[in-house]
Structure prediction request, 246 residues.
Amino acid sequence: MKKILAYILSPIFWLTYGLLLVIFHPIQLVCHWIGGYSLRKKSVDFLNFFLIYSPMIMGARIRLIGFEQVPKQGPFIIVSNHQSFFDIPPVVWGFKKYHPRYVSKKELSKGIPSVSYNLRHGGSALIERKNPKQAIMEIARLGRLIEKEKCSASIFPEGTRSKTGQLRNFQHAGIAALLKKAPSALIVPLVIDGNNRLIKEGYFPLQFGVQLNYKVLPPIDPKGRDPKELAQSLQEMIKNELEHLK
Prediction:
């Protein structure tokens, strides 16, 4: 029965998801033109509210856990595992009060309604994976931004998505570059669980009735810690929590 529902509901989900991105793209443009960053961000928040809960069309159960642990004031760095492009809405919506910016590959800054525009105009670090020097400079710029504005940055230190949910090794260079330019920042670990199961057989059909968990772990003060050791520790924390959530 679940298989039948998956084939029936997946087209409805993708139509809804696509329409949300297309509809909110001109809304973002108008909001930016009328009210600048502040009003545009509100439109992005509303978009991601709908995006985060859109998998309910597929019978998904969605839980946001531990967000009350988020520091009352930034700057801080959100460090999470990476399972699919569905990972972004919980960051946008869950941390909306803290104006999250992202470390994202530059290719995503073109061609995707709503998403590309937000990346280009929201202050995110758009990196070229084959150009380490450019990537570190962009991440450092983002570090300076969150230090100045007391906001947040989101980074996926695995570097690429893990479709199986099995954690890849966390790379420390991006975290180190952010901390160097944002020395007062705390680390907020975020565990993303279930998005890989949603796309277990690819993006069509999506799986029906998946449990999706987005859990914030206690913040970490990184002062005085070696970035490589810190990255390994964060990887282990998130790995243990993923095993507990299964």
User: Anything to note?
Assistant: DSSP finds seven helices and seven strands in the chain. The mean pLDDT is 92. The radius of gyration is 18 Å.
